[in-house]
Amino acid sequence: MFYVYILYSKGRDIFYTGQISDVGDRFIRHNQGRSKSTKSGRPWQLVYAEQFESRSDATQREQQIKSMKSRDYILNLIATYQAD
Questions:
Q1: DSSP readout, 8-39?
Q2: Gyration radius of the chain's alpha carbons
Q3: What pLDDT, in 10s, does the model give residues 37-66?
């Protein structure tokens, strides 16, 4: 299984979108500062995750979310996810 996930940094008020096969491990690495792109946003909160059968599908979905370039779109995804 592969996942698209969205992290939120309250301190910087930003979102980070990524994809990986082990969300838990990746989340820990983000919060330990072991990812250059997210080091300054710690601590991160995992606010969204979506599961896929293949890395290709997860990568396509990640790119779709990123291409929207819309905070409102991400907030809507999160609201829908938290309602489920």
A1: EETTTTEEEEEEES-HHHHHHHHHTT-STTTG
A2: 12
A3: 999 999 999 999 999 999 999 999 999 999
What the block records as the tokens of 80 is: 């829908």
Neighbours of 5 (CB within 10 A): 20
The amino acid present at 10, given as its one-letter code, is: K
Closest residue by Cα to residue 4 from 43, 45, 59, 42: 59
The candidate with the shortest Cα–Cα distance to 21, out of 54, 47, 46, 44, is: 54
Whole-model pTM? Answer: 0.93
Q: Which fold has domain 2-83?
A: GIY-YIG endonuclease (3.40.1440)
Q: What are phi and psi of 47, to 5 degrees?
A: -115, -10
